[in-house]
Write a structure and sequence with these properties.
This is Centrosomin N-terminal motif 1 domain-containing protein. By secondary structure, this protein is mostly helical. It has 2 helices and no strands. The chain has one domain.
């Protein structure tokens, strides 16, 4: 707002109106414009950094989602493998028990299993 006031004062000065300290006004306007330019550049840099950070966060979210899917898949695979191992163990125990019973009762038929 200050820069606009000073610019108006300079315009009045250039139109022939008398304004005291016109050189001081020009210096102040130049300083304010410079400061405004620096702030604009700083804001542009911060905006670019914010955009890069947002992209990085989005990429990390996607990687997290993919990792979670992979983890679930591995858990399902591990669950299948655990069930398979448990079933094999049950079959082996059943086969041993069947052989024990055959031996105990003298049955000589074939026992299927591993």
């Amino acid at each position: 707002m200050r820069i606009h006031f000073l610019e108006e004062q300079l315009i009045r000065l250039n139109n022939g109106d008398t304004v005291f300290g016109s050189e001081e006004l020009q210096v102040e306007v130049a300083q304010l414009r410079s400061a405004l330019g620096e702030r604009d550049q700083l804001l542009a840099e911060q905006d670019a950094a914010m955009n890069r950070a947002t992209q990085a966060i989005d990429m990390l979210k996607e990687q997290l989602r993919e990792a979670e899917q992979t983890r679930r898949s591995v858990l399902r695979t591990n669950d299948v493998e655990a069930v398979r191992a448990e079933l094999e163990s049950v079959v082996q125990k059943s086969t041993r028990r069947a052989r024990e019973l055959q031996d105990k009762h003298g049955y000589r038929g074939e026992v299927k299993g591993t």
